[in-house]
Amino acid sequence: MPSYLPEPPFTHGRSIARVGLLLVNLGTPDAPDTPALRRYLAEFLGDPRVVEIPRFFWWLILHGVILRTRPAQSAKKYAAIWQSEGSPLRFHTAAQAAGLSARLEAAFPDNPPLVRYVMRYGQPSLGQGVTELKNAGCDRILLLPLYPQYAASTTASSQDALFSALARWRHAPAVRTVHHYHDDPGYISALKGRVEGFWATQGRPDVLVMSFHGVPQFTLHKGDPYYCECLKTGRLLAQALGLEPHQYRISFQSLFGRTEWVKPYTAPLVEQLARTGVRHVQVLCPGFPADCLETLEEIGMEVKATFLNHGGEVYHYIPALNDDPTWLDSLTRIALDNLGGWLPAPLPTAEEQAAQKNRALEQGAPQ
Ligand SMILES: C=CC1=C(C)c2cc3[nH]c(cc4nc(cc5[nH]c(cc1n2)c(C)c5CCC(=O)O)C(CCC(=O)O)=C4C)c(C)c3C=C
Ligand SMILES: [Fe+2]
Ligand SMILES: [Fe+2]
């Protein structure tokens, strides 16, 4: 018999009518040390959406080999990027949630959607976020994954976690999920602004590399759209920046295990660029809206060393969107597009109010 979490008795006309917004990111360890990494990797790599190997066989490899060696190696990498505020992935995600919340409060001052950020693996957990929203009276929840490109290993996994969290409640809220926004004009234009802002201080590179997290190649052949969505993001961004084909590359990083992953791989690509005389490379990671281990350590340190050790001269990692205001405006709009019918019309923003006033003045309205 299922045992549900406690709730007050149902009463007619109880006006709980709040929308909750769960901003979900991948997750991160609680500390850059071996025990914390072991806990985090056990949860992450134990998810059948992440490693698609028959369970018993994978359990033996994971617990017999990987969790005995990888946690210590990964802890060293995390230590290199850890800040006084903690894991970059977590504090950037928290800042994004705060920015989203402030924008929604300004647009819906009477009953703003309640925003919580959660992690698919680690803390704050998705179950904890759902409980907080539920206890605050949210009867409708929007899941907004911080993955612009859909992948079964990320987006679908966070949906799975949401539905298992809801299975603990008798009176489960209504839910909606954001599927992807890889080609959203606001997302592309925020990336464009990020790159052009970087060029304004550091100059333009010979080649801009757009590096996305990889996935095993077989997932593409089994119907996962992730690879194609990454290529589309890259193409749209290159068009927005006015880049010629020889001025950019799209590649995939963060390989794991022995199977073939989607190609080209970032590190060998950057090495080949250096060997063939490219002197100045900049790398952007459009699939990571928040800086994390994979951007700061792998791209910012490891791939940089590869480029410089093979004859490259100038290498820059362009920081992720993080709490860039243009990005947070776009993220808010993506949320609102997916909340259609759940909220009243938003109040106009200060810019919209000013534009309305100017239009009225142009049309001869008294000042
Ligand atoms: C951006 C989307 C991501 C996809 C797709 C993805 C797939 C994927 N990842 C692994 C294995 C690992 N990934 C690790 C870190 C990591 N992965 C993502 C994002 C995606 N992963 C992020 C944002 C991070 C960084 C988290 C942080 O704390 O900063 C790690 C852990 C680090 C390490 O030990 O190397 C592993 C392992 C697989 C197997 C996979 C898809 C099949
Ligand atoms: Fe990953
Ligand atoms: Fe990595």
TrEMBL record:
Top-level EC class: lyase
Main location: cytoplasm
Residues annotated for Fe(2+) binding in this entry: H213, E294
Keyword hit for Lyase: yes
Pathway involvement of the protein, from the record: Porphyrin-containing compound metabolism; protoheme biosynthesis; protoheme from protoporphyrin-IX: step 1/1
Keyword rRNA processing: no
Main function: Catalyzes the ferrous insertion into protoporphyrin IX.
Family under the similarity heading: Belongs to the ferrochelatase family.
Name of this protein: Ferrochelatase
UniProt source species: Ferrovum myxofaciens
